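User: My instructor asked us to take a sequence, write out its structure as tokens, and then describe one feature of it. I'm not sure where to start. Here is the sequence I was given:
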Amino acid sequence: DHWTKDLDRYFPEGIDTPGVVMIRVDAKAIRYWDGSDEGEITI
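Assistant: Let's start with the prediction itself. The structure tokens for your sequence are:
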């Protein structure tokens, strides 16, 4: 239910990639980067 095609570039074996787990995180802000695009979002 939570897997998206965007994750395939990081995990070539998809949801069956050994060691892949889902964690819950309660955050106040997040930082992201995707090539030259980066930033911070306050939640």
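For the description part of your assignment, you could build on this observation: Residues 5-42 form one domain. Try explaining in your own words what that tells you about the chain.
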